[in-house]
Amino acid sequence: MSRFAVIDIGTNTCNLLIANILPDRSFETIYDRKLPVKLGRGGINKKILLPEAIERGIFALQSHYNTIQEYDVSKIKVVGTSALRGATNRSEFFEKVKHLLGWDIEIIDGELEAELIFRGVRLSLPNGIGKYLIVDIGGGSIEFILANDNDIIWRKSFNIGIARALETIQLSDPVTPAEILAYENWFDEHLQDLWIACERYEPQTLVGCSGAFDTLMDIYEKAEPDLKIRGVSEFPLGNYQKIHRILILSDHETRSKMDGMDKIRVEMIVIASVFTNFILRRLTIKRLLHTHNALKEGVMDRLISNAV
Asked: How far is CA 305 from CA 21, 55, 298, 301, 302, in A?
């Protein structure tokens, strides 16, 4: 049985997926871990990676490298997204990774990222949902994919990730109503193409994948991050709204003690929830689903297809 590994270097986290490849070309996840990197901190809107961000990225990749050595992996794919594709000094990071670990990094553009996210999410969804809107809230970019069962109708990556938002608009602790309005106006200004697409296709279901949505679901279920079996789950809108109200009234210390809170996301989860609430309200979504699957599962699926 073959065993592959995928590393997704995001703006906030560096994610490792190791899977056994099954005879039907599906895969069984045997290891799934994310490490904080915050590559965008202090530099994402200036299109640079600060030295300390590069160090955090290298440290996380070295840790994943050590893990991979324990699993007898035959293929490794490393991809980078928003913070890396936008950084003018990314070659410095690439050269260090190549020298220390021997890995080449594939930078994927926003359109391909959206396609691969759909590919990963689709693996976890049942048929018969109807038209749905996938949302992946990243640190550097946010991807939207409108789909109908197995087909993409429309997709786009927007450079309005949470790390960018936090460096654009000051965030108090706790957030103020005026700041929430400022964030919503900022998001609204950048999402005109989404409003046009959704007005035409009218999705009723929103599928939130990975990242911030994992944390929101863990808070709802009071589950320990990374210690539960994940698939696709119903996220009752009323329960989400209760969590949202708690988050926007909370300070950093309170959030850090919440059951289910991922320590990586204590800082950014408030704005991620402000964004989610804004989208749900703006599009009058009727149903909210959550799946852990996202980019790295899509990259794994592509890696398997290319290996056959």
From this structure: 11, 33, 11, 6, 5
Residues 6+ apart with CB under 8 A from 181: none
Distance from C-alpha of 66 to C-alpha of 64, rounded to nearest angstrom: 5
Instruction: Classify domain 124-292 by CATH number.
Output: 3.30.420.150
Domain 3-109: CATH class, spelled out: alpha beta
Distance CA 2, CA 72 (A): 9
Q: DSSP secondary-structure letter at 44? A: G
Question: Which two structure tokens, joined as six digits, stand for 32?
Answer: 């799934």
Summarize pLDDT for 174-193 with one digit per residue, the tens. Answer: 999 999 999 999 999 999 99
For residue 229, is pLDDT > 80? no
pLDDT at 125: 93
Q: What is the pLDDT of residues 57-107, one digit of tens each?
A: 999 999 999 999 999 999 999 999 988 998 999 999 999 999 999 999 999
Question: Is the dihedral angle over the CA atoms 183, 56, 215, 130 positive or is it negative?
Answer: positive
